Amino acid sequence: MRRFWQRLKNALRPRIAQRITRAGLWFTITILLTGVGAFLSANNLIFLILSALLATLIVSGNLNRLTLAGLEVEFEPPKHLFAQENVSGGIAIRNTKSWFPSFALRLSSASENGLRRPVFIPLIGPGEVVKFDAEVRFARRGRYRENGFEISSRFPFGFAERRAAVTLLAEVLVYPEMEERHLTEPLFVELLAEAEARRQGRGTEFHQLRPYRHEDDARHIDWRTSARHGEMYLREFAVEQLEDVELWLDLGGWRTDGFEQAIRAVAAQAFELDRRGLHVKLRTQECEIAVPGQADIYGLLKYLALVDLEPLARPFPESSVSTTALVLLYTAASERAPAPLVNRAIFLSEPS
Predict the structure, then answer these.
(1) Backbone phi, then psi, for 212, in 5-degree steps?
(2) Could you report the per-residue pLDDT of 220-267, keeping only the tens digit for each?
(3) Same domain, 290 and 191
(4) Are 280 and 336 in a shared domain?
(5) Which residues does 159 contact at the CB level (< 8 Å), separation at least 6?
(6) Which 8-state DSSP code applies to residue 80?
(7) Which range marks the domain in which residue 34 is found?
């Protein structure tokens, strides 16, 4: 219902809004005073001056409307976009008028999402397209189906600023915000160390050679290959287990913004695990997503970008907890955590 009323309000809102500037206010006062003087004095010269002032005001308004007419805006977001991240997005403004240019345009966002700073375009000729990159930012995760932009102009004399709303029907997917503080969570640091130790200690069958990364164990460096290629190479062994770490997200029982905090924590930690080459599985009451296997890391982040709170979701049953898996659980309260995972759970809604 809230979304319906918002769309209805946007539909009823006039497409072009007008705001009188200080210069326009003083010009209007000048016209009024000139008109009073003309009628009191009956002087033809003052009437001519009054006519010129009124004509200037009418011409200014018509030119301003023509400047904003026939403009189309296209927005091309980056491939991967995270909340609260300043990134560069492509914008194209097309003047569909065949005979009249558009002058002194100012493109801005109609809400907190979209352009970080307004962009000024001095001139767009008839039939021309102006393309540029601008800094964009989205405040929250989710799918944005309508991105509101506003184009405004004070051309030609600055008596009024007219703003035309431009609605883009391009869909933008925004992943959860990446917060590095979640990577220093003691339980996650402990889990990460255990996963790294388990990966280094398992597998005996040779799998492949790959370039060495700074977080790899130096014991597995292939010195002969490294000397031949002039850079460090590591011997990888076949993996016997698909998932290294399981991140469990409880969808029920949350209060305030604890659920959003949990989503941001899971997103940052899953991204870090994938960056380190570890396999990770996300588990909720709705589904399980294994990376790699079922999806890549961006498929997992897409789910986190769209998942909603489920107030009626039941806690995870104790029978679903594996005795060998490395698990980190995010839940609202300790009574919702299975007994085997109480020491592996983070409770974000409980007072500290």
Answers:
(1) -75, 140
(2) 787 788 888 888 887 766 544 445 788 999 998 887 678 889 999 999
(3) yes
(4) yes
(5) 20, 21, 23, 24, 27, 28, 57, 60, 61
(6) S
(7) 21-56
* 189 phi, psi to nearest 5 deg: -60, -40
Residues 265, 248: Cα–Cα separation, whole Å = 11
- Nearest Cα neighbor of 281 from 309, 254, 241 is 241
Closest alpha carbon to 245 in 213, 219, 277: 277
Whether residue 122 has a cis bond before it, omega within 30° of 0: no
Domain assignment of residue 156, yes or no: yes
Distance CA(316)–CA(250), nearest Å, equals 8
Q: Are 290 and 243 in contact (CB under 8 A)?
A: yes
Q: Specify the pairing of strand 326-331 against strand 245-249.
A: parallel
Give yes or no: residues 192 and 335 share one domain.
yes
Domain co-membership, 191 together with 218: no
Residue 252: burial class (beta carbons within 10 Å; 0-12, 13-18, 19+): middle
pTM (two decimals): 0.70
CA 57 vs. chain centroid, Å, equals 42
pLDDT in 10s for each residue of the chain, 352 residues: 666 666 655 555 555 577 888 888 999 999 999 999 999 888 889 999 999 999 998 998 888 888 888 888 888 888 888 998 888 888 888 899 888 999 999 998 877 777 888 889 999 999 899 998 888 888 889 888 766 788 889 888 888 888 887 766 667 899 999 988 888 888 888 888 888 777 665 545 556 777 877 767 677 787 788 888 888 887 766 544 445 788 999 998 887 678 889 999 999 999 999 888 888 999 998 889 988 878 889 999 999 999 988 888 888 888 777 767 788 899 888 888 888 888 888 887 654 3
Same domain, 151 and 110: yes
- Retrieve residue 199's tokens: 């990966």
**Same domain for 168 and 147:** yes
114 and 160 in one domain? yes
Residue 10 lies in a domain: no
Residue 220 and residue 196 share a domain = no
Q: What's the CA gap between 331 and 333, in Å, rounded?
A: 6
Q: How many domains does the chain have?
A: 4
Helix/strand/coil for 213: coil
